[in-house]
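Incident log entry.

Two folding requests arrived from the same account within the same minute. Monitoring flagged them as a possible duplicate submission, but the sequences differ. Recording both here for audit purposes.

Request one:
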Amino acid sequence: MFLTLSLLAPRPSPLRPLLAVLALALGLLCAPAPAPAAAMRPAALLAAMSLEEKVGQIFMVWFEGPTVSPDTDALIRERHLGGVILYAAPGNVVSPRQVATLTAGLQETAAGTRLGLGLLVGVDQEGGPVARLRQGFTVFPSQMAQAAAGRPDLVRRAAAATGRELAAVGVNVDFAPVADVNVNPANPVIGIRSFGSDPAAVSRLAAAATAGYREAGVVCTPKHFPGHGDTAVDSHVGLPRVDHDAAMLARVDFPPFRASFAAGAPAVMTAHVLSPALEPEALPATLSRRVLTGVLRDRLGFSGAIFTDSLGMGAVAATFGTPEAAVLSLAAGADVLLIGADVGRPAAERLEAMDRVAAAVRSGRVPMARLDAAALAVLRLKERYGLLHAASFSKPARGFETRLATPDSAALARDIATQALTAFGPVAPALPAGRDSGTLVVRPRLGREAVDAEAEAGILAWSGPRTLFLPADPGEADLARAVAQAGPARRVILLVTDARGKAGQRRLAEALSGAAGDRLCLVAAQSPYDLPLLPRAGARLATYGETEAGMAALGRALFTNFRPTGRCPVELPQAETQTHS
């Protein structure tokens, strides 16, 4: 049309400018509009990303404060951060409303970036002693307590309820369940966080928990692969070693992970442990290509996202350094490089780790294809859980408070805690005790402020018995005070929180046993592994943790004719269990 007009017009026409504008407009209308990032599939997003954006997406890091600070804003906007992890210690957790406002603010900041990708927002909410969100949330009994109750359906429901509460305040990743088979009584870091020492039972319950998180629409990360259940060193402070041979790994450590994967786990978390049977070159599993790619990917067939445990933990930070560990773990096959708020690690390491990874890719030390695979795994995880579009989460969910600590969740927690209570032998003549001043309740503190506060509040709620709260490792003066008060008491109840680690608690138990005899009820308030270390008593119970629900259930066992029905889910050494009879 325009060509014909130009041939017919012997000289410039006043219509030409108008026709040119119309042609331009028509061209713009016909041209395909660029797709918004939220509408793009992961492969297209990856193709649109710079190297720096890819590096940022594979990092999940801690930050300080209850709000989006300038430092955190810069991490998201300038470093293209893929995710964050919340902790109480750096001030991220104050109240449910504050957490909901914080996560919305983080996503609003992410929405303002070039691609507007949503953030992974994670937390450790296992239940029992490891739960970052406590006040205003349902804190379910520990995994070992859930196992003692013996009901996979309760495990699934607890995980689903936990996931719904996390989602209500904008948390979309729970670093749970613990899939470790705790076969070492001296394990200083797993213990009651595990479902127990029987691989088959742990497998059933890990799968049930995974199903619950799937039901709630929250990412879960069974942990800690290839297994942290037979360690004597806490990987937060040192490098543990697991000397299981290939057959034992296949029989004990791997089954819960296989079961979780079969149940649809979208992710997994690695362990900072040496496993010579899998990696002969003294590399922690998190940094080992043989473990992450050769075993986890190739042998077990896991296709989801691989999260590292925190690269600020002593096991790797003190041996390789956090920035170098980030490079090594990415090269080994990890997809999400987690840097948590580990004691003594400087905040600057987060940026140093990102810079080290970017430099390693530029130099060819880490192939670009490996970075692409990791970034694509993150994008696919976000797509699967509807997290690609940060703007969708930039305001707190309407009415989120009504989904927290609901009566149904509280009743479920109490049901689990009640069914978990375990008696080792007869409970008479020590129980039931009187709910009056003739009963003395003694508890050494655990040394964890949140757990101690909840436990002591639960004891005081029993209303009537006299109470004596002691230091975590009682001295001679503490023992003398306890014995003096125990002498005239009709019943004495001792809640032991760490007899294996605190000699003062063992001496306290011996002293009270001598003073009260069969009038003494010993309660392993945290780990059942404490019981074999304690002296004879009129009754011996295990609660597997001191949550609000657990303390209410314990009160029922102590002051009524209730008979505990829980079954201990760990095997205690035979030589030690003889004292139970």
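Request two (distinct sequence, not a duplicate):
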Amino acid sequence: MTTINTSSIYRITGLASGLDIDQMVTDLMKAQRAPLDKLMQKKQIWQWQQEDYRTINTSLLNLRNEVFNLKLQGTFQVKKAASSDESIVTATAGATAAATTYQVKVNQLATVATNASAQAIANDSFDPSQTLVSQQSNFIHNSDNDFGWDSTTHEFSFTINGQTFSFDGDTASLNLIIATVNANKAAGVSMFYDPSMKKVGIATLKTGDNNPGQKEIQISGNFLTNVLQINVDYEQGGTDATFEINGLAGMTSHTNSYTVNGVTFNFKGADANKYVTVTVSNDIDAVVNTIKDFVNKYNETLAAINAELKEECYPDYLPLTDEQIQEGKLTDKQIDQWQEKARSGLLKGDSLLSSAVSSIRTVMSSIVQGVTGQVTVTAGTQKITTVANSLSVIGITTGTWEEEGKLYLDETRLREALQSNPDAVMELFTRTTDAAGNPITDSKQKGLAVQLYDAINNAMSRITSQAGSAGSLYDQSYISRMIRDMDRQISDMEKRLQDLEDRYYRQFTAMEQAIAQMNTQSMWLAQQFAGGGGQ
């Protein structure tokens, strides 16, 4: 027997009657809770459906990303460049590059401008990590005039390419000065100290003769010229790369790179007596790999949707309520198995998914009207030339009816089509304008990737209207509105049930109080009778 306080109501549970009031109320409420349990189970089913819809939408999104690549003409215009001697020239080709051959001769590489200390600047005791003042005597040129500083403050400055650097010899070391110069990209130089030679080297960050007729490293300041012994007249000036492309001699570049006709030539070495052949061609491998990625993603997505459409449904298995789980009648494994069956087949035969599959498969099996590009491929034992107006022409076909639209790729045939006429394959996928350059309005005349992209977008939009998306701040989808409505119903029902439970407890409490009062009166009467009998 216990006395508990719930919902701000003082409950006397069986103190006078000896009844298990808690259990009796629980049993009474169990029947009353049945509608609420059914509503919560219904809500759980909607939530599971929403999750399944959103999972499919994610798969469609990933497929759409692959299709987007096939919408781009640049995907089919990828070029590659091969060099006969990569120790002298390498090359990369952009989508606009023409498939052709270049003869390249590199006479001279572009170099940076350099300078260095004319002689050793310090003795063997010199430590570049210590302050200049502490190391002053270890510099070979070490007078205050050499440093260009005031003998009291030890402050000094110098300039490199118009950038002024100021330091205090009491706190600055040679290492700090070098690090500060290197960090200032506007100065355009890098410095280093070689402890074995006791010299400082300096070089421009950029190659080439960027300052014709002048020094590339403009310096001033006693510290640079006297202490570090850097003489501007000793600079080894930066040189431009000089080269020849297809007989056009005298070409120059400040860098060891030059771009022409969409091809970037990178110069690695120089040999004035050697021509290097650079061949630019269509990158068939890149296009094939892109199409293979699409086919794989398409099959993966279609399989996921078909699995949902065919998944077995178990209507007798409803989601378990919290009370059913907490009862302890089922093991954890049994609970998992039950819940797995409860959420199985929630989208079986779903009209939205069926429509999405149908529209996608219709596009993939369609013929693009109006295309004229032809490809030459092998059919059986013969070579045939035909208009590239469907996927089957370029080696992409569907399997048997039982495989529900699965695609198969004949890579050999695809390569043949790309090698014979890559523009025709590109048109099959990307076509959006007619021969006159006018936009196409008839969807059946648009490229397959364009049609498929639109079909996927439409399917995703319909599913989003049904199930929403996880990232929405306020989801107005059909299922989300249903769930919010059920949440309101659940809240109202829980309040009514709480009120009913409180009423039951009040009634039992009143009964307990009445019994207790009767017991008290009975005891009083018994005492009275007992007292009278004793006189």
